[in-house]
Write a structure and sequence with these properties.
With 83 residues, the protein is an all-alpha fold. Helix content is 81%, strand content 0%.
């Protein structure tokens, strides 16, 4: 009974990986094992959310320059964000 459930899980996982592969082809994305793995695990989506959050915080800090945040702090955040 457990073997059937495990095999069903493996088949579902393989099916999802193939769907992602086909989506990447349609979207013209670079395809490699890490990009498929990250999509399967939702890592790429979490990274985007973190970057968006970082940018929102940075925007708030810039609006309060010299009123709670120094230029050096903002520069450090920009370096961390990669801009």
């Amino acid at each position: 009974m457990d073997a059937v459930r495990i095999n069903d899980g493996i088949i579902a996982f393989e099916h999802r990986a193939r769907e992602i592969y086909n989506q990447f082809i349609e979207q013209g994305k670079i395809i490699n094992i890490n990009s498929i793995k990250n999509e399967l695990l939702g890592i790429s989506h979490r990274q985007n959310m973190l970057i968006e959050f970082f940018q929102e915080v940075l925007d708030q800090m810039e609006s309060r320059l010299n009123h709670g945040y120094a230029i050096g702090t903002i520069k450090n955040w920009k370096v961390t964000l990669g801009i």
